[in-house]
Amino acid sequence: MRKSRNKTRLAYAAGLSTGVVGAALLVAPTPALAAALATITPTSGPATTTVTITSSSTTGTTTSWATGTAAVFLTTTNPSTACPTYSGNPGATYTAATNVTKSAADTVSFTVPAGLNPGAGNAPVTYKICAYSDVAGTPAKVNDDPANLFTVLPSLSTSGGPTGTTVTVKAPAADAFSTGTPAAIYTNATTCPVNYTTTITDKVAYAATGATKVDNTTATFNIPSGVTLTSGTPQAMNLCVYKNNTGSSGAAVAGPLAFTQTPGVTSNPTSGAPGAANTITFTAPSGTTSFATAPGIRFSATGCPATYGTPGTLAVTNVTKTGTTTVTGVLPAGANPTNVATPYNVCFYAGSSSGDTLIGTSLYTINIPSVQLSSTVGTAAGGNGITATSTAAYLSGVTTPYVVFTKEERCPIFYSTTGTVATTVASRKLSNNRAAITVPALPLTNAAATDYQACIYGGTSGTSTLLSAATYTSATAPTLSAVTPAAGTVLGGTEITVSGNYLTTAPGSITATLGGLPLTDITPINATSFTARTPMHAKESNVILTVNTPNGSVSLPAAYSFVPAIEATPNTAPNTAVAVNLAIRGVGLASANFTPGVANSHIYLARGEYDPTEVVGSSGTMVNPAIAECGDVLVISDNEAACVLNLAQRLNIPAANVASRQTAATDVDTVTGSKVITSAVTGFLPSDIGKPITGTGIPAGTIVRDIVGTTQAILSKAATATSGSSDIQATIGSAALRSSLTMTGTGTPSITFSGTDLTVADVGRWLTGTGFGAPRQILSVDPAGHTAALSGNAPNASPTDVSVLANVPVPAGAYTLTFVSNGSPAANTGDVNYSQSVVTPGSTFTVTNS
Fold it and tell me: What is the sign of the dihedral through the CA atoms of 54, 56, 61 and 65?
């Protein structure tokens, strides 16, 4: 109901005078009233409006107007004051309604008496209705309730103004403008034609422009420009108003509505702060006689009255004529603002006697400094702090500002707790232009977001004036329930969905942090979810999510975990490449120890997920070892490093997988043009993948691409011959590049050769021989070729049968680039200091055949 009522008020106020939008609202708000015990239809209108009152209960001894003739009186006394006992005339402040008619046992209609006119300046006046069950004896009071009110509105919103003025007409009949487009004649005739016409014999008559129907009882019109004032002298005119613009249309308002056409006076300045020290210059149009003498000037929050009347504190003081068309005056003390900007009509009269008539109109706006709230929306529970900041020193001279939060449309001029007020709070003065306010609990209306006016005063006495005001919205605080997915990489960029309730949906209305860092690409979906992308973040589990909305802030603990991850550029290379330079992207790289050593940090290439805990028995041999390593790591920042990857040589191949082995003579069949070979006896091993294979009908340079079970192998090249009736012999594994080398070892990784047996080209290759147990990789060779460093200890002996094996390249396929803080087989992954990157699409590295 409040919203629809406000719309009606605003529609009526819009037509008070040119540019004065909302002027009818600039009165102190009516206190909130209890629910009505009767239905009043309509609740406002001009005098002579017919009103129907339907009883639903009573405070008296009867429940209806079942007998006798009902009595109705209207009074301007406090609505909370009980109606008096009926005595034929309840008192001087009561006016008897006319045409009281009982149409049913619980329904009475009456006419608002013609004598109940609007107040000064055409201001609406609200009356309480006192209804009685009879006019004889001592009848019961029916519906004596403070909510039974009727507001008397002016038939014409203003008594005068220049051409172009917008006026609002209120008709008494409930269906006055129910059909067609309203119409009005602007004329100097003293009587109105019975039906609508724009021709009146010997009289000026113009159709009012801009006719607009507001509702069935309200219409607005613009005063037309056809009438020219003689020497600028005000001229008495009338407005005749009709139901519609057809020739048969009857009058909507009985008789002419008086309107004085005046010159349009300008104000300089056109606006200013409140206070009785501000001087304004008023200038009438050139050639007018408006200011033949110093005029009487008054301010009006509504339309201009026809006569000067008794303006009291709204009278402009120190009025001085300074020229033929110019006067000055001081802003009246009673012209106070009721919000940040309050428009007033300035009304000029032939003199300052109560009966002096209107000769001109102007406009002036009373300003108070506007304030900017640091947050204009918050949770209904309150308790949050906001600031009210202005470019003006609006708190100058104030010790403790007080803020009234009210549901009324406008703030009272003076401090007041009447009306729909949530509470009053003392704020903290931070400076002359800034205050800190603790927002109180602000109840919602029907569980929906509810607007309040934050009215700031210099104190709590009835004389404390309004310093400033701003709108604040109370809403339900958001809640959070889950983040999906609940984990992602430290690299960020993972799209997550945050679920909850009462989340705002306007773009840009949500900000959030995850683990203390801001989420990006936040996109509201509805009031229960939004999507976002995670930030780059150090490895951490169960971090907190904090979401900020205009309705309040909320946190969800243990919402998300950041797990280690790395990405590489490029992410593909051939297996003949011995030095692929990779740019590594990750988090925490600066704290990693990449010093050579198996127990230190490494960047490995592995099949699928690298798991150092999966070893074969007590041998310490990993089931899924690293295939290659990106070494020579150069850390650039905590998030970036560079390394070199050798794809031409596999890492850490156990002895059984490195040494060449030979199939029996009857083991292998080849088929011309096929890459598939079959072994019927010893079969193939998973470790054969990537190794070279030689034999009759197998082209040189062929490697085992894959195996199928233990009986078939898929080659990189097709066979060139068929074995025929007898199977062929095939050799799988690294053939020795050089054999029968003489080497001396001391039980350490260092070895010495008697001659120049190695070259720097052997670095990365494998060396094996008697007593080694497992091959050792050659890590370095001195320039003379006499000494070398191995990946493991050499036997303390001088074998005569040492062989250098050919490189085994990394097989083609998709691998995972993996960072580990400890590269040892069977490393303790449960150690809090252990870190390993997870498998992500970004960690995939593809090796191709040359």
Answer: positive
Q: Where are the domains of the chain?
A: 2-41+47-152, 160-261, 266-367, 372-475, 486-563, 567-652+811-848, 660-732, 736-805
486-563 falls under which CATH superfamily?
Immunoglobulins (2.60.40.10)
The CA dihedral of 586, 592, 595, 601, to the nearest 10 degrees, is -70
CB-CB contact of 394 with 470 (8 Å): no
On the question of a common fold for 266-367 and 567-652+811-848, the answer reads yes
Say if CB 693 and CB 811 are below 8 A apart.
Answer: no
Closest CA relative to residue 302, chosen from 435, 408, 152, 416: 152
CATH 2.60.40 fits 160-261, yes or no: yes
CB 594 within 8 A of CB 639: no
Q: Are strands 209-215 and 141-142 parallel, antiparallel or unpaired?
A: unpaired
Q: What residue type is 22 in one-letter code?
A: G
**Burial class for 725, CB neighbours closer than 10 Å (0-12, 13-18, 19+):** exposed
44-45/149-152 β-pairing:
parallel
Gap between the Cα atoms of 771 and 751, Å rounded: 14
Q: Using alpha carbons, select from 745, 753, 752 the residue that is nearest to residue 795.
A: 745
Tokens of 18: 């040119």
Looking at domain 372-475, which of 3.10.25.10, 2.130.10.150, 2.60.40.10, 2.40.33.20 is its CATH number?
A: 2.60.40.10
Edge-to-edge strand ranges of the sheet holding 511-514: 487-489, 552-563, 540-549, 511-514, 517-518
pLDDT at 652: 57
CB environment 316-334: b (16+ within 10 A), e (fewer): beebeeeeebbbbbbbbeb
**What are residue 749's phi and psi, to 5 degrees?**
-70, -10
pLDDT value at position 66?
65
pLDDT of the residue at 637 = 94
Distance CA 240, CA 260 (A): 14
Stretches in the chain below the pLDDT threshold 50? 1-36, 57-62, 654-660, 662-666, 725
Of the candidates 631, 538, 638, 519, the residue with the CA atom closest to the CA atom of residue 585 = 638
618: CB partners within 8 A, 6+ apart: none
Global pTM exceeds 0.90:
no
At the topology level, CATH places domain 266-367 in Immunoglobulin-like (2.60.40)
Q: How far is the C-alpha of 420 from the C-alpha of 426, rounded, in Å?
A: 18
Within 8 A by CB and 6+ apart from 228, the residues are none
Instruction: Tell me, rounded to whole angstroms, the distance of Cα 380 from its chain centroid.
Output: 17
Q: What is the DSSP string of 480-504?
A: EEEEESSEEETT---EEEEEEES--
Of 478, 601, 585, the closest CA to residue 536 belongs to 585
Q: How far apart are CA 134 and CA 62, in angstroms?
A: 11
The tokens for 253 are: 């308002």
Amino acid letter, residue 256 = P
What is the distance between the alpha carbons of residues 94 and 128, in angstroms, rounded to a whole number? Answer: 9
Residue 313's identity, in one-letter code, is T
What is the CATH T-level fold of the domain 567-652+811-848, as seen in this structure? Answer: Immunoglobulin-like (2.60.40)
| Residue 453 φ/ψ, nearest 5 degrees | -95, 125
Prior bond of 42 cis (ω within 30°): yes
What does the alpha-carbon distance between residue 102 and residue 70 come to, in Å, rounded to a whole number? 7
Which pLDDT score, from 0 to 100, does residue 194 have?
Answer: 94
Nearest to residue 766, comparing CAs of 690, 662, 631, 660?
660
- Residues near 488 by Cβ (< 8 Å), separated by ≥ 6? 494, 496, 534, 560, 561, 562, 563
Contact 38, 53 (CB under 8 A): yes
Alpha helix stretches (DSSP H) within 329-483: none
DSSP code string of 60-90: SS-SS--SS--EEEEE-S-TTSPPPPPSSS-
In whole angstroms, what is the distance from residue 97 CA to residue 113 CA? 6
- Determine contact, residues 496/535, Cβ cutoff 8 Å: no
Q: What would the 3-class secondary structure string for 35-54 be?
A: CCCEEEECCEECCCCEEEEE
